[in-house]
Amino acid sequence: MSRTESSVLERIVKSYDVRGLVGSELTETVVEAIAAAFVDEVGAAGGDVVVGRDMRDSSPGFAAAFARGATARGANVVDIGLCSTDESYFASGTLDAPAAMFTASHNPAAYNGMKLSSAGALGLSFDTGLRSIRDRAAEFLESGIPAVDQPGTVRELDVLASYAAYLRELVDLSGIRPLRVVVDAGNGMGGLTVPAVLEEAAGLPALPLTIIPLYFELDGNFPNHEANPLVPENLVDLQRAVVEHGADLGLAFDGDADRCFVVDERGEPVGPSAVAAIVALREIARVRAAGDDDISVIHNLITSSIVAETIEGAGATAVRTKVGHSLIKAEMKATGAVFGGEHSAHYYFRDFWGADNGMLAAMHLLAEFGSQSEPLSSFAAEFSPYSDSGEINSTVDDIPAAYTRIVEAFAGRGEFDELDGLFITGLTSIDEPFWWVSVRPSNTEPLLRLNVEAGDRETMERLRDEALGLIRATN
Predict the structure, then answer these.
(1) Is 6 a catalytic residue?
(2) Alpha-D-phosphohexomutase alpha/beta/alpha domain spans which residues (predicted)?
(3) Class of domain 387-471
(4) Residue 224: φ, ψ to 5°
(5) What CATH architecture applies to the domain 272-357+374-381?
(6) Which of 105, 117, 305, 438 is catalytic?
(7) Cα-based torsion angle of the residue sequence 403, 408, 411, 415 in order, rounded to the nearest 10 degrees
(8) What is the pLDDT of residues 333-372, one digit of tens each?
(9) 291, 298 Cβ separation under 8 angstroms
(10) What is the pLDDT of residues 319-336, one digit of tens each?
(11) What CATH number was assigned to the domain covering residues 161-270?
């Protein structure tokens, strides 16, 4: 094993997953070592470990390498083959087994990676296991993976049909009005899961949905556009198709299909915060009807203020958290929250082991929207009353100096908290609408991330430009 392979672990083990360039950073040798370390870290010897993969060209080889490393340390690999990330969470939850999903999500074809979960689909972060896995894998790369007396086995299991049936149990779409829905799978795993869940590919009854597919062919080279709906140009084809087909709405999934983005009948985006507010109302109403009055819902601090307002207006407790996938999954477990929403279109469900599921969020939206007669643009407007900047990244060499400039400029104008970077809530008056400004450092790069929301566009743009000027003052 080379020292280069050992040191590359420092670069590819991130805050919430493993991700790197195929060949130069992520190799089958490195994957074997990570697999062996993962089995040791989660105590999986003698038990099952779920392994799933997306459609990237490198994923089959990496999944096989993971199986070699895992079985060498005594784990029994359950190979679920091609799947979405939330399908791998389903397998982890139903089997109560740790899981590894091979995907680089929305990243370009040159990348691949792993999303690792302990039993019950509980995510691992750098502070809850990934650091230890990285360090143990480095030792294995230096000295080799010691085999156990009883190596594990490999068996295949197809969970797509049971995954689809489970989601249909959680959200009943059979009684909604007929809807025409354009779905852009971006050549990612939505091309496998959408026909199973929303159509009849898994043998389930037909729903009152006409699905108009875009780029359902699984192709890890992403020949049409990157499978990253957060980038506006990657929504253009969906927006055009919705208008051309006279569809009621459009859905766009990212590469591993764990996030879902929405556009209305005009092709205009419906913000993830609006979707989070809509789903939160449904989940609050559902559990209250079942007799639960102590209800909490999680939202990260840069979701629109409408999310917390909606949660509290429905009589539930809004739990504000830092930004971060594995962190929110842990918070879902700790608080027993029924639902959690992020600005990035990750949506978490107590009934899905606290894990995120973009398909389930889409189904909730379809159920609520399809139960009334207004077009989506009108229906969603109630949940999008404010103006936001979106996330703006700036490369900053001296982050403390930038923080000092911001604090000095906004002193006396707002209340500060440091839950996650700097968050400033405006001291509003009769002359100024409400506003907030969030400035957060990246976990992995010398970046500051700016988000601004205000009661009107003029105020948002003024604060956005002021904050950007302060952030970039010496750059």
Answers:
(1) no
(2) 12-125, 162-267, 278-383
(3) alpha beta
(4) -100, -45
(5) 3-Layer(aba) Sandwich (3.40)
(6) 105
(7) 0
(8) 899 999 999 999 999 999 999 999 999 999 999 999 999 9
(9) no
(10) 999 987 778 888 898 999
(11) 3.40.120.10
